Amino acid sequence: MSFDGLIKGLHHVTATVNDAQKDVDFYTKLLGQRLVKETVNFDNEKVYHFYYGNEIGSPSTIFTTFPYKDQGVRQGTIGTGQVYETVFSAPENSMEFWKSRLRNHGLKTTTETRFGKEFLLFEDPSGLKLSIVEDNSDDRNPVWTTDEIPIEQAIKGIHSVVLAVKDSGETIHFLNDFGYNIVENDAVCTLLESQEKGAGNSLIVLDGKDLSEGINGLGTVHHVAHRVDSIEDSIKIKQELESKYGIQVTEVKDRKYFKSIYFRIPGNVLFEVATSGPGFLVDESNEELGTSLKLPDWQEVRRQQIEKNLEPYER
User: Fold this and answer.
1) How confident is the model at residue 1 (pLDDT cuts 50, 70, 90)?
2) 190 and 182 in contact (C-beta within 8 Å)?
3) CA-wise closest residue to 206 among 270, 174, 162
4) pTM of the model
């Protein structure tokens, strides 16, 4: 059995962050993403789980956060064995708009050239490493816009993620098997794409031999998810990972909006494989997305207590 064709590309990135209000303000107001779902961490009902993305939260546009302020979670350290940076995709000729917008809001920005493209680097309120790159071939829709960010500059979703690892060769070899093919090498980075190619389907492997090992906590990415068409594809992947690579894979987890399995790849980055459906419209209309707390059936019976434990914030 082969992974070929099963992994379509990225699904989402999930990070551990600090303050809920600052998080929502940053991703919805400053970056102009839509809060497509407000729920809770299914493994910790005292913590929100926010999903940001395009208008309907299409797979590959989703960035999700767990705001763990005052929950006893340590400050993390970004390093190897983690998603080092999340890259967002913006339209051609929008870079000056984003440089000005971020700086006018007090963010420190730098630029870096990779694979012949300019990346605008900055951090979110929790210290997560983010960047924006222009990609005129990114045709993902429907794009979410705001009064301050018109469609000509609006972020279209996640472009790629940067994986920091100690042994880039071993990790790249695995990713080739997993469904990502090498496109280009640039200094200490290697660009890979799934068969669907381009924005939302790309990984960058950073040779982290000079970096310290990452420590999970506030301000770090917890995992990156990759999309498949069906849970049957996920089960095939699970069987292959366990039999061929000896990788321990979780049982299928029902995340209501998709079903998932989790495992660590060579290089120690936590991967998730998530189904593309059913999506975020299963319990809200397009107009209602992200406007109220949604819970799965098994938590709905505890709604009153769950809501009591969550700190209110303003959308």
Assistant:
1) low
2) yes
3) 162
4) 0.98
Q: Measured between alpha carbons, how far is 228 from 242 in angstroms, rounded to an integer?
A: 18
Q: Cα separations (Å) of 172 from 176, 197, 240, 285?
A: 6, 17, 18, 40
Assigned domain for 2 exists: no
Token pair recorded at residue 177: 């098997």
Write out the two tokens for 89. 């995709």
Domain that holds residue 150: 9-309
Residue 250: which pLDDT band, with cuts at 50, 70 and 90?
A: very high
pLDDT of 295 strictly over 60: yes
- Residue 314 domain flag: no
Instruction: Say if CB 157 and CB 13 are below 8 A apart.
Output: no
- Provide the CATH number for the domain around residue 159: 3.10.180.10
Across the range 12-39, mean pLDDT stands at 98
Upstream peptide bond of 142 is cis (omega within 30 degrees of 0)? yes
What does the alpha-carbon distance between residue 209 and residue 81 come to, in Å, rounded to a whole number?
Answer: 11
Confirm whether 4 is domain-assigned: no
Q: How far, in Å, CA of 311 to CA of 23, rounded?
A: 13
Give the pLDDT confidence score for residue 3 in this predicted structure: 81
Alpha carbon distances (Å) from 280 to 44, 91, 175, 276: 20, 25, 29, 10
Distances (CA, A) of 113 to 151, 207, 249: 25, 16, 36
Kindly state whether residue 278 falls inside one of the protein's structural domains.
yes
Structural domain total, the chain: 1
Q: For a pLDDT cut of 70, what percent of the chain falls above it?
A: 99
Q: Copy the structure tokens of residue 19.
A: 């303050």
